Amino acid sequence: MRLPATVLAVLLLLPAVASALSVVFVDLEELTRQSDAVVLGTVIEQRGAYLDEYGIEVNETRIAVEQTLRGTPPTELWFRTLGGAVPVPGVEQFADGERTVVFLRFADGAWWVTAMGQSKMTVTDGLLGSVATRQLHVSAYVRDDQGNLVAYRPPSQTVSLDVLAAAVR
């Protein structure tokens, strides 16, 4: 059975993880290209699971899809993130009842977040409508013109849901 690229990348990095994880920054345009689906929904429940075929622990999160922004996922789905009993640095946590936008890939018969913690946008409602915010809590890098990795501090990104929906279609 083929290991999803996201899982493989993290497993290769785990031995070097101390208290933080470094990732190559993925902008929203690239994140959208890499995703099979982008959904707006509410987290219903979570559970830990051990995947014998990969030898890893994961968190499985069930989300009620309010709006599909890209792709054709079911109206309710389970998606996986690395973790389990011990949280993995750089992997975003989800909370029951939380309204969120999630970028997902379908691999080996299951939905996975596309790019770990970079795949989540928290949704809040305000006087002018709903907005989605993407905050990264990891050390990030980008490639310079010569292909070298350069440290990058990604800013928090907040966008209206209408603008986000148009951008990811």
Radius of gyration (Å): 16 Å
Overall body shape: globular
* DSSP strand count: 11
Second-tier CATH architecture: Beta Barrel
Number of H/I helices: 3
Uncertain spans: 8-19
Strand content: over 45%
Number of domains: 1
Which sheet architecture does the biggest sheet show?
A: 5 strands, mixed, barrel
- Helical proportion, percent range: 10-25%
How do the SSEs run, as a string of H and E? HEHEEEEEEEEEEH
Structural class: mainly beta
With strands numbered from the N-terminus, the spatial order across the biggest sheet is 2-3-4-6-5
Please identify the top-level CATH class: Mainly Beta
Summarize the structure.
The chain has one domain (5-168): Beta Barrel (OB fold (Dihydrolipoamide Acetyltransferase, E2P)). The chain contains three helices and eleven strands, in the order H-E-H-E-E-E-E-E-E-E-E-E-E-H.
Give a written overview of the molecule.
The chain is mainly β and 169 residues long. The protein is 14% helix and 47% strand. A hairpin with a 2-residue loop joins strand 7 (120-126) and strand 8 (129-134). The chain has a single domain (5-168), classed as OB fold (Dihydrolipoamide Acetyltransferase, E2P). The two termini are 31 Å apart. The chain has a 5-stranded mixed β-barrel with strand order 2-3-4-6-5. It has a 3-stranded mixed beta sheet with strand order 1-9-10, with no helix packed on it. Residues 8-19 have low confidence and may be disordered.
